[in-house]
Amino acid sequence: MGFKCGIVGLPNVGKSTLFNALSNARAEAANYPFCTIEPNVGVIPVPDPRLDDITALIRPKQTIPTVVEIVDIAGLVKGASKGEGLGNQFLGNIRECEAIIHVLRCFEDENIVHVEGHVDPLRDKDIIDTELQLKDLELLHRKLERTRKMTKGGNKEAMRQVAIIEKYIAHVEQGQNVRTLQRSKEEQELMQEVGLLTDKKVLYACNVDEDSLPDGNEYVEQVREAIKEEEAGLIVISASFEAQLMEFEDPQDRQELLESVGLREPGLHVLIREAYKLLGLQTYFTAGEKEVRAWTVKAGTKAPQAAGVIHSDFERGFIRAEVMKYHDLMELKSEQAVKEAGRLAIEGKEYVVQDGDIMHFRFNV
Q1: pTM for this one?
Q2: Cα–Cα dist 66/47, whole Å
Q3: What's the pLDDT at 22?
Q4: Would you call 57 exposed, middle or buried from its count of C-beta atoms within 10 A (0-12, 13-18, 19+)?
Q5: For 142, left (φ over 0), alpha (ψ -120 to 50), or beta?
Q6: How far apart are CA 365 and CA 360, in angstroms?
Q7: Alpha-carbon gap, residue 91 to 289, rounded angstroms
Q8: Bridge partners of 202?
Q9: Cβ(322)–Cβ(344) under 8 Å?
Q10: Up-side HSE of residue 86: CA atoms within 13 Å toward CB?
Q11: What does the pLDDT read at residue 72?
């Protein structure tokens, strides 16, 4: 199981530069709107030092990280919800993503034209929020119309659903994103099939100039204040610096460049990890002489379902899971030593997988 994030933002905010640095997919990054006509897709490994540590210890024939799929979606303009620019395509592409990485321009550069005339990340955020909200209202009104038809025979369940839909509409009409709406789990489940765009998890990527690393600037503080009521993440990143960093092949050269701006690791690593965390995802590992591999599951996943990520037969015929903790393996240096120390746990169907577990599944089909 991987996951899919869409990079969105107004034209010329640094989306494609960031995407290029992430995936080396060579998406065109030019100084004009709509340089990305079709969404570019990059499959990017999730950086995890634990995977490297396990590999160094076991020395398998191959190592396979878990991945995130990043979609660079064409720039948005005012009127996208009505089909302006590449609006319909943009909005359709967002619907297919689990989360949104919203790039906001937080730097001044007279050589890079801003589509709105001047730099203002809060205005830029509002433009995209408004277009997504307008699209959500369109979707909600369609569902309301269908559901109202079902109430004509006195259908109480349909009447209850109408009230819920109207609650959503009233919230969005106030200029609020659906993810900020207080609602019950039942209400969330009812609306899940609608695919509301402003209900998706969002990570705001404040794109700054190199001099504003690592902590950001006044623009970033404005964004941080504006989103404090949202269930959203925020990172400070410099797309141009990340692109420059990717040009260095020597790890030591990269590290020196990072340290020169006060960073310990690339911002791209932080971005991927934060998106991962935002979606409530975690990693477990399988490890053997043939392969060490990272697998992605939702937090709270039980052992049989985690096994099913590898193969459906593993879940169907699940018997038990043998579980080592990452820190135990690092301390004791081998699976055999972990067993001898009594730290290899045998877990059944109710075991909830923990982040960093190293697992071996027993099954019978």
Answers
A1: 0.87
A2: 9
A3: 84
A4: middle
A5: alpha
A6: 16
A7: 45
A8: 100, 232
A9: yes
A10: 20
A11: 85
Walk along the chain (365 residues) in steps of 10 and give the mean pLDDT of each run. Answer: 82 88 59 50 89 97 91 68 56 86 95 88 94 92 95 91 97 96 93 92 97 97 94 95 91 94 93 90 96 96 98 98 98 97 98 98 94
Instruction: Identify the pLDDT of residue 202.
Output: 96
User: Tell me, what amino acid is at 208?
Assistant: V
Q: How far apart are the first and last CA of the chain?
A: 22
Other Cβ atoms less than 10 A from the Cβ of 83: the count is: 11
